[in-house]
Amino acid sequence: MDGLKLKILELLKEDARRSAELISTMLGVPEADVKQAITEMEDDHVIVKYATVVNWSKVDDEKVTALIEVQITPERGRGFDSIAERIYLYPEVKSVYLMSGAYDLLVEVEGKTLKEVASFVSNKLSPIDSVLSTKTFFILKKYKQDGIIFEEAEGDNRLVISP
């Protein structure tokens, strides 16, 4: 991938609302080149979606998010892919990652209540034949996501005392 496309991706990652006109000004290249590069990246599925990062703790729509470590037995000929696909097709599942280390998949699940997430794990995820074990961790608070800090740290307001 050429340098222009990488620079465009970085700028769009910071703020997906930036227009081709603004990006061309920021990079000092013709707007037509920026539009063409963005179209090519969308066609090649390099740019998959433009999304908004939401601090859900500031919204009255309460959600419960859990990270689930999953140990699985890979399927012959398909490895981890077919099991990961089976898992990510559930609407409760927000993300699935193949991991190195003590477990194979990290699954991010979202529900309205703890009980709903627990029900997903016990009734849908654990019964899958290839799943050997699961370990669920509930997210209590998000401080930072996708490079965005949700709440600024409070400054030290104590008086300075000097000897």
Automatic annotation (TrEMBL):
UniProt keywords, alphabetically: DNA-binding, Transcription, Transcription regulation
HTH asnC-type domain residues: 1-81
Protein name: AsnC family transcriptional regulator
Keyword field contains DNA-binding: yes
Cross-referenced Gene3D superfamilies: 3.30.70.920, Winged helix-like DNA-binding domain superfamily/Winged helix DNA-binding domain
Annotated GO MF terms: sequence-specific DNA binding
PANTHER family noted in UniProt: HTH-TYPE TRANSCRIPTIONAL REGULATOR PTR2 (PTHR43413:SF7), TRANSCRIPTIONAL REGULATOR, ASNC FAMILY (PTHR43413)
SMART domains referenced in this protein's UniProt entry, alphabetically: HTH_ASNC
Keyword Transcription regulation attached: yes
SUPFAM superfamilies: Dimeric alpha+beta barrel (SSF54909), Winged helix' DNA-binding domain (SSF46785)
